[in-house]
Amino acid sequence: MRIAPSILSADFAALGDAIARVEAAGADLLHIDVMDGHFVPNLTLGPPVIESIRKRTRLPLDVHLMIEEPERWVDTYVKAGADYLTLHVEACAHLERALHMIREAGAKAGAALNPATGPGTLEYVLDDLDLVLVMSVNPGFGGQSFIPTAYEKLRRIRGMLGKSDVLLSVDGGVKAANAASLAQAGATVLVAGSSVFGAADPGAAVAALRTAAEVARSA
Ligand code: DX5
Ligand code: ZN
Predict the structure, then answer these.
(1) In the chain, is it the N or the C terminus that has fewer CB atoms within a 10 Å radius of its CB?
(2) Distance between CA 103 and CA 57 in Å, rounded?
(3) How far is 181 from 194, CA to CA, in rounded Å?
(4) What's the rounded mean pLDDT across residues 191-215?
(5) How close is the Cα of 198 to the center of ligand 1, in Å?
């Protein structure tokens, strides 16, 4: 199981410290939410902030683009430092081409599904994917309630992926209390914002997520 703290719930004026805390606690990836105020009703950060983060951490950067026409921005975000670049299938008319562009630019390619989007949209691009991101909230904000239909979607995508090493990530409302069930449903990456950066000790929250998920695996 990989733990990917989402900096959306961190103090943006003290990002370097927030990142250092979760890195020291053994986070595996750093999840960065890019929002454009169009695809989702919120605005966050863009390439210059990612460039600055890239200089401050050795963690792989898991960049989640919640933007319209994401294919126009692939090169920019990969140059800024994205290791994984994930775009939304709902925002992308030519998904197969966009996924190829990400790999050609030198990053791992991810596709994200909103809660209402079925896994069938991935059926013909499975070989073009390094990561699938199942949204368990409607994207745009941290701290929303987990939508339980994500469990069945994770199980179906796990079945589609078989034994391949494509990462299966879940994002939205993830906390220690549901980490075990998510691991059992097939998730291999837990993205967590408010349950990590809203905690008094973000490092301990990362450890708690990992412990909870690994109990499920050994059960
Ligand atoms: C939401 C973002 C998430 C967000 C999750 O649109 O994609 O990564 O940070 O926040 P929590 O973990 O608080 O639901
Ligand atoms: Zn996200």
Answers:
(1) C
(2) 22
(3) 19
(4) 96
(5) 12
